[in-house]
Amino acid sequence: MPTLKVNGRKVTVAEDVYLLEACRAAGVEVPTLCNFDGLEPWGGCRLCVVDMSLAKWDDDWFKMVTACNHPVEEGMTVITDSERVLATRRVVLDLLLARCPETPLIQRLAREHGIEETSYELNPEPTDCILCGLCTRVCDHIGVSAIASTDRGWGREIAPPFNEPPPDCIGCLACAEICPTDHIKFTTSNSCRTIWGREFEMLRDPKTGEAVITKAQAEHFAARSGVPMTYFETSDRSKRLEVAKTVERLRVVKS
Amino acid sequence: MRIESKDQFAAFQAQAREREAGRKKRVLVCCGTGCLATGAREVAEAFAYEIAERGLDVEIGLGVKSTGCHGFCERGPLVVFQPEGLLYTKVQAKRVPEIVEKTILGGEIIPGLLYKNPADNERIPAYEEIPFYKNQVRVAMRNIGRIDPTDLTDAVAHDAYAGLAKALFEMTPDEVLDEVETSGQRGRGGAGFYTARKWRSCKAAPGDRRFVLCNGDEGDPGAFKDRSIMEGDPHSVLEGMIIGAYALGAHDGYIYVRDEYPLAVVNLQAAIVEARKAGLLGENILGSGFDFDIRISRGGGAFVCGESSALMRSLAGKTGEPRAKYVHSTEKGLFDLPTVLNNVETWAGIGAIIHHGGAWFASMGTARSKGTKAFSLVGKVKNTGLIELPMGTTLRHIIYDIGGGVLKDRPFKAVQTGGPSGGCIPENLLDLPVDYERLTEAGSMMGSGGMIVMDDRTCMVDVARYFLAFLTEESCGKCVPCREGLKQMLGIFDALVEGRGRQGDIERIETLAAGMQLGSLCELGKSAPNPVLSTLKYFRSEYEAHIADRACPAGICRDLTAFEIMDDCDGCHVCFKACPTNAIEGTIKELHVIHHDLCISCGACLDVCPTDSIRTFPKIELAVREVV
Ligand SMILES: Cc1cc2nc3c(=O)[nH]c(=O)nc-3n(C[C@H](O)[C@H](O)[C@H](O)COP(=O)(O)O)c2cc1C
Ligand code: SF4
Ligand code: FES
Fold first, then answer.
1. CA-to-CA separations, A18 to A134, A250, B337, in angstroms, rounded
2. Coil, helix or strand for B233?
3. Among residues A229, A185, A173, A226, which one has the least CA distance to residue A204?
4. Which of A71, A164, B274, B570 is the most buried (most CB within 10 A)?
5. What is the CATH number of domain B25-82+86-125?
6. Measured between alpha carbons, how far is residue B298 from residues B224, B253, B257, B430, B471 in Å?
7. Quick check: is A97 in a domain?
8. Which residue's CA lies nearest to atom 8 of ligand 1?
9. Does A137 touch chain B if contact means CB atoms closer than 8 Å?
C-alpha cells in the first residue's frame, strides 16, 4: 500500500486508486466537476489539477496532473494549492462562468476561487451544460448509450442521435440525476414520464398504485438480469410493507 | 514469386539491380499529388504513347517511369531524363512529341523547359545542380522520385528491404534495438521522443501481444511529407514497420492514413499486396520464421485524430478523442495492449538505419538531434516544396540557399515552424541551427517540419489569429481549457484585428495562455498558445500598436488600415484595374488617387504597383484628417 504526502500530510492508500482518493484520505478537498465515484475517470473538466512529484524526481520538480485519473505511487508528493494550480483552476472556472453565467454551481465555485465576474466574453446563449460528460458516460455505463456528445470543439453538445427523441432511451433518469447542474429536464407523473423528447409509460405498483419505473427500464433490466418484470414494478414502500407483514406473521407464530 | 530464404532474397536483389542497370534510358515523370493536379498522368501517358509508337523501347531501350513526388511541386509536372539527369519543369502533354524528337532523339535541350534559378535567372539543366536539390540529404525520402512506387522490383533494386534482410538474418531483435539506439533517431511526428526508448518501453511491458502502428494522419494544414513518402515509397514504411515488429516481437501492424489521401492508400495497399506475395510480409517472412502483417485503416478526418491516444481510440472503432493518459501507450495502447506508434517519416528511416548502421545516421545532425529531417518549405519563398536536410542546418541556409530567398526579394520578417501549434521565429534568429531543442528554446517547435516563410507584409497578430482559428475548429471539445479557452482567445484576437482591442488584453491573453498550457488534457490544447506566445515574445510592439494606436503596423488588418498613393506614382493605371471596388481614380500617366469611402483595404493595389508608390497608414488618421 503506497504512502504519499498530500500538502505535507502523510496518507497510505490502496494500490489501485487515483490521487483524488489519496487527497480525500488526507482530508484535503480537491474540486471536481466531471468525476463521479463508480464511473471511470474522464479528465475533461481539468478542475482537479494538482502538482505532483515522483519520489525519483528532483525535490523541486513538479508536474501538473489531474487528480481524478492519475494513479497513486509510493513516495509521491502532492500539492493541491500551489500558485499555478490555483491559477489554472481560476482560468477553468473563469471560462466556465463565461459559458454558464447563470448556473448556481459554477457561480459558487467561481466565487470560492475569487471570481465574481468572468474576465471573458459572456456566452450570448447561456446554458447550464458544462459538458462534463457525466450523462453520456452513465448512460454508456448502464449499457444503453442513448445519448452522446456530438460535434467537436466549441460546437460540442450532448444530444440524442440526429437530435431526435432517442430510440434507445429507457427513461431511467440516470443522466438527469447525475447532472451536476440539473441541466437535463424531465417530468414524471403517475402515468407518464418525459425526457429527451420522449414519453414513457410508467409501471405502477399493483398494491399501492404508485408509479415506480418506466416500462422500458423494467424491460431493459429484466432482459439483462433475468429477474422477472414483477420485481421491478414493486415499489420500495410495497417491499417494506411486505417485510413488515412477514415480521408481524413471525411474531404471531412465535407467541 | 515467394522468397523463402536469405539466399533467395540476395538473388532477387541481384536480379532487380541487373534489370535496373540494363535500363539506362528512362523518362521519370513525377506523379505525386501535386504534379498529378497539373497533368502529370497525361504527360506520362504521352511519353508512353510516343515511345511505343516509335518503337523506342526496343530500339534504344527507353522506358517511362511514374515516380513519387520530387518535392518541387510548384514547378510541376516535373520530368527527369536518365542517364543525363536533365530536369524539365512545367511539362505539358502536348509538348511531349517535341521533347521526344528534340531532346531524346536529337540530344538537344529545350531551354524554355529548364528550371530557372530565381536568384540569378540562370537556367540549370542538371537536376543535381539545382540548389533546391543540391543541398539536400535524403534518408527517409531516399527513393522518392527515383523509383516507381508500384514496382517492388524497382524498389529492391534501390536497396528496399536490404535492411530487413540484414535484421532478420544477421541480427537478433535486441541488436536491432541497439542499432536504432545508436542512431539516436527521434520521432518525426512532433514530440521528438527517442525511437529506441519508446520501443524498449513497449518491449518491457508485460503481455505477449503487442502492436506496431504508423501515424499517417498528417493533419497539419499545408504539410505533405508523410503523404509524399506513403505515395512515393510505400515500401520504406512497410520495411521500417516489419523491422520494428521484429525488434519488438509484434505480429500485427496498422497504418492509419488520413482519409484525404486516396493515392497514399492505393499505393500502400498495392505495396502490401506485393510484399505479401513476395514473402516480405505475412507468415514466415523471407523464410525466417517471423510473422507480421499490416493493415490499413482510414482516418477519422480530424486533426486531433493524429494525437496518439485519439488515434488508437479511432483505430479501435471509437470516437477519435484524446484520453488522459498517465499510463503510456507503450504499455496500454491499442485495445489496452502494449503499442508502439511512430510517424511515417520515422518508420521510413528505419530500413536505412539498419542497412547503413546507426552510426552512419548519427554522424549527421546535432548533439541531440541526429540524422536528417523532412521539411515542407512554403509561404513567401521563391522555391517552395518538400526537402530533407541534416538536423542543425540553419534557417538561413534553408530559406536563402534552398528556398532561394524571400519572394520578390521583399524583407524577411519571420518563419513559422512546427505546424499550427508551432511558433514564429524572427529575423535575428535566422542563424539558428534547426533541431528539436533550439526550436523549442526559441518558442516554436519541430512539429512535423512545416516551415512558412513570411515577409514584411505580414501582421503577426493576424498570423496568430489564423492559427487560433484553425485550432478552434479542430479542438475536440472534451476539456474546458482548450474548448472554451480557444474560443475566448480567438474572440480577443478578433477584437484586436478589428480595432476593438482594450487595455489589458495582452495580460488577459497571457493568463489564458498559461491556463491552457498547464490545464489542457492533450498536446493540442497545451501547445495551442504557442503561435500567440511566440508572436507576443518577438513582436509585442505590434500587439501594442493594435490596442493603443488602433493601428496595424504591417498594414494588413483591414479594419485598421487605409491606403494612399504617393506622389511618385507614374500613372501606369495597373492599380486602377486591380481594385475590386473601383476605389481608384486616375488617367494614364497622371497621379492616381484612392477614395477612402470606397476602399475596402484589400491591398490588391499595393501588391501590383510596380513603383512601390502606394503606402498604408492607420485608418484612424482618416478621422483626424476629416476634422482638420
Ligand atoms: C493534435 C495532435 C496532432 C498530431 N498529429 C500527428 C500526425 O498527424 N502525425 C504524426 O505522426 N503525429 C502526430 N501527432 C503526434 C503523435 O501524438 C505522436 O506523438 C507521434 O505519432 C509519435 O510518432 P513519432 O515518435 O515517430 O513522432 C499529433 C499530436 C497531437 C497532439
Ligand atoms: S486539449 Fe483540446 S483536443 Fe485535447 S482533449 Fe482537450 S479539448 Fe480535446
Ligand atoms: S474531475 Fe478531474 S478532470 Fe474533471
1. 18, 48, 21
2. coil
3. A229
4. B274
5. 3.40.30.10
6. 17, 14, 5, 39, 22
7. no
8. B218
9. no
Residue pair B414/B347 in contact (Cβ under 8 Å)? The answer is: no
List phi, psi (to 5°) of B558. Answer: -60, -40
User: Residue A251 above 90 pLDDT?
Assistant: no
How many Å apart are CA B453 and CA B417, to the nearest integer? 9
Q: Is the distance from the beta carbon of residue B309 to the nearest atom of ligand 2 less than 6 Å?
A: no
Contact list, B511 vs chain A (CB under 8 Å): 87, 91, 119
Query: What's the pLDDT tens digit per position in B424-480?
Result: 999 999 999 999 999 999 999 998 899 999 999 999 999 999 999 999 999 999 999
Which residues of chain B have a CB within 8 Å of the CB of A121? 488, 491
| Helix or strand (DSSP H, E) at B79 | strand B79-82
Q: Please say which residue of A51, A81, A111 terminates a domain.
A: A81
Q: Which of A81, A104, A121 is the last residue of a domain?
A: A81
Exposure class string for B248-287: b at 16+ Cβ within 10 A, else e: bebbbbbbbbbeebebbbbbbeebbebbbebbbbbeebbb
The predicted-structure confidence for B506-518, as pLDDT tens digits, reads as follows 999 999 999 999 9
Alpha carbon distance B33, B232 (integer Å): 10
Give the pLDDT confidence score for residue A152 in this predicted structure. 87
- Out of B472, B478, B515, name the one closest to residue A92 (CB): B515
Contact assessment for residue B384 and residue B74, using Cβ atoms and an 8 Å cutoff: yes
Ligand 1 pocket test: pick from B214, B343, B347, B478 the residue with the most ligand atoms within 8 Å of its Cβ: B343
pLDDT above 70 for B115: yes
pLDDT above 80: residue A255: no
The domain segmentation of chain B, as residue ranges, is: 25-82+86-125, 152-362, 372-458, 461-549, 558-627
Cell numbers that stand for B128 in this block: 543535381
- Count how many domains chain A has: 2
Q: Specify whether the CB–CB gap between A135 and A145 falls below 8 A.
A: no
Contact between B547 and B508 under an 8 Å Cβ cutoff? The reply is no
CB B66, CB B148: distance < 8 Å: yes
| Cis preceding-peptide flag for B131 (omega within 30 of 0) | no
Q: Over the stretch B176-216, which tens digit does the pLDDT of each residue have? A: 999 999 999 999 998 899 999 999 999 999 999 999 999 99
Q: State which residues form the domain around A40.
A: 3-81
A186's CB contacts (< 8 A; 6+ apart) are: A173, A176, A193, A194, A195
What lies within 8 Å, CB to CB, of B14 at 6+ separation is: none
* Structure confidence by residue, pLDDT tens digits, B553-592: 999 999 999 999 999 999 999 999 999 999 999 999 999 9
Beta bridge partners of B565: B614
The CA distance from B393 to B395, in Å, is: 7
Name residue, grid cell 505535507. Answer: A8
Query: What CA–CA distance (Å, rounded) separates A81 from A58?
Result: 20
Contact state of A156 with B487 under an 8 Å Cβ cutoff = no
Contacts of A255 (CB under 8 A, 6+ apart): none
- The fold for domain B372-458 equals Ubiquitin-like (UB roll) (3.10.20)
pLDDT given at position B164: 98
